[in-house]
Amino acid sequence: MNKYAIIVAGGSGSRMGSETPKQFLLLHGKPLLMLTLAAFFEADASVIINLVLPKSQISVWLSLCETYHFKIPHRLIEGGQTRFQSVRNAIKMLPSNGLVAIHDGVRPLVSSQIILKSFEIAAQNGSAVAAVKPKDSIRMAKENQTIAVDRNQYFLVQTPQTFAIGLIKMAFLQDESPNFTDDASVFEANGGKITLFEGDYRNIKITTPEDLTIASVILRK
Amino acid sequence: MNKYAIIVAGGSGSRMGSETPKQFLLLHGKPLLMLTLAAFFEADASVIINLVLPKSQISVWLSLCETYHFKIPHRLIEGGQTRFQSVRNAIKMLPSNGLVAIHDGVRPLVSSQIILKSFEIAAQNGSAVAAVKPKDSIRMAKENQTIAVDRNQYFLVQTPQTFAIGLIKMAFLQDESPNFTDDASVFEANGGKITLFEGDYRNIKITTPEDLTIASVILRK
Question: What's the complex ipTM?
Answer without folding.
Answer: 0.89
